[in-house]
C-alpha cells in the first residue's frame, strides 16, 4: 500500500507541472526538459550565477596579498567586488523584468549615452592607466565607459538591424546607421584610448550581428581583410604590442631571463597552471598570487583558478561558458522576434569572444591582450555591464514563445510555502 501511494503521489506531482520527482531523472526526462521553452532561461540564470559566485570566491583568494599591501586589509578588493556584484544583481533583475519593447525603446538613448561617456575619457574626467586612457572618474569612483558601450552596441544594433531585415542584402542599409557612424565612432574613441582588446571585441560584436542579420557573405571577405590589416597596423605602431607578439611567437621566454620584460606574465601564468597540475594546490594555496603573477585577480584569474582548483576548476569555467553559449543558441533558434534573435547573438558574441581572448592569453594560445574574464575577473565596470547583459538575456529568454506562460504558471517556492500556512481568516473559518 505504501509503495502504491508513493507512486500515485509522484504521478500527481508530474501532472501538476512540477517536474519529475526526486530520483526520477533519466536521459529522456533531461532531453525533454532541454527542449522546453523555459530551459534557456534557467541555463542562463544558473551558468551566469555560478560564474559570478566562483569569481567572487577566486577574487577573495587571489587579491588578498596585494590588497593587504595596498590597503592594509586582505578583504578590500573582495568587498569592493562584492558591492559591485550587488549593484549588478539589482540591475540584472530590473533588466530581466523589462519587456522587449522597453529594451527597443532604450536603443537610441543607450548608444548616445555610450558615445558621450566614451568621449568624456578625453576630458578632464579621463584617467590614464598603464598606457590606456579608457576610464573616467565620477565622485571618486572610476568607470570604464567602453564596457557599457558593448551593451549599447548590442541593443542599438539589434533594434536597427531588426527593422532592416528585408533590405539587409544592401550594404548601405545594413551598415547605416549601425556601423556608420555610431559603431565606427565608438570603436574609434576606444582605439584613441589605446585599448585594442576592447576594440577587437566591439568589432567582433558588430561583424557577428551583421552575419546573424543575414548580410551576404561576400561582404565579409573585404571586412575581414580590412579588420586584419587594421589590427596589424595598430600592433606594429606600438612597441608594447609588438613585444607581446614576439613573446607569443618566439622562444625568448625560454631564456634564463624569462622573468624580465614581456615574458613575466606569460611565464608566471604557465607556472601557476603547471603548479596546479591535475587537482590543484587547494583553495587559497596559490603561490603565484604572492607578488609573482601580475593582475592575479583580474586578467589572469584563470591562472589562479588552475593553480588552486586544478584541471577540474578550469574545465568547469569552460563548461559554464559552453552552457551559456548553448542557452543563447536555443533562444536564437526558438524565437520568432528578429530583435530577440539579434540581441541574443550580440550578447553571446560579446561574452564569448572576450572569454576566448582572455583564456587564450592565459594559456599562451594568443598574445596577452589585456581583457578580463567576463563575470569572473575583478573590475566593477566589467562586472556590472556583463550582469546587465545577463539581465537582457533573461528578458529575451522570457520572450521565447511559451516561456512566459510556463514561468508565470510555476509558483515560486516561497509562494507555495506561504500558501500552505493558514491565514487568520482561514483559521477562524475552521474554528
UniProtKB/TrEMBL annotation:
Q: What class of enzyme is it?
A: transferase
Record field: catalytic activity: [GlcNAc-(1->4)-Mur2Ac(oyl-L-Ala-gamma-D-Glu-L-Lys-D-Ala-D-Ala)](n)-di-trans,octa-cis-undecaprenyl diphosphate + beta-D-GlcNAc-(1->4)-Mur2Ac(oyl-L-Ala-gamma-D-Glu-L-Lys-D-Ala-D-Ala)-di-trans,octa-cis-undecaprenyl diphosphate = [GlcNAc-(1->4)-Mur2Ac(oyl-L-Ala-gamma-D-Glu-L-Lys-D-Ala-D-Ala)](n+1)-di-trans,octa-cis-undecaprenyl diphosphate + di-trans,octa-cis-undecaprenyl diphosphate + H(+)
Q: How is the protein disposed in the membrane? A: Multi-pass membrane protein
- The keyword Transmembrane helix belongs to this UniProt entry's keyword annotation: yes
Q: Which residues cross the membrane?
A: 41-63, 75-94, 106-127, 171-190, 196-213, 220-239, 300-327, 339-369, 375-397
Q: Which GO terms describe its biological process?
A: cell division; cell wall organization; peptidoglycan biosynthetic process; regulation of cell shape
> Its domain of life?
Bacteria
UniProt entry keywords in alphabetical sequence: Cell cycle, Cell division, Cell membrane, Cell shape, Cell wall biogenesis/degradation, Glycosyltransferase, Membrane, Peptidoglycan synthesis, Transferase, Transmembrane, Transmembrane helix
- Indicate yes or no for the key word Ligase: no
What does UniProt give as GO cellular component? cell division site; plasma membrane
**Pfam families per UniProt:** FTSW_RODA_SPOVE (PF01098)
Show the InterPro entries listed in the entry. Cell_cycle_FtsW-rel_CS (IPR018365), FtsW (IPR013437), FtsW/RodA (IPR001182)
Query: What GO molecular function annotations does the UniProt record carry, in alphabetical order?
Result: lipid-linked peptidoglycan transporter activity; peptidoglycan glycosyltransferase activity
Region Disordered, as annotated, extends over: 1-22
Compartment annotation: Cell membrane
Q: What is its EC number?
A: 2.4.99.28
Q: What does this protein do?
A: Peptidoglycan polymerase that is essential for cell division.
Family named by the database record:
Belongs to the SEDS family. FtsW subfamily.
Task: Tell me what this protein is called.
Answer: Probable peptidoglycan glycosyltransferase FtsW
Taxonomy of the source species: Bacteria, Bacillati, Actinomycetota, Actinomycetes, Micrococcales
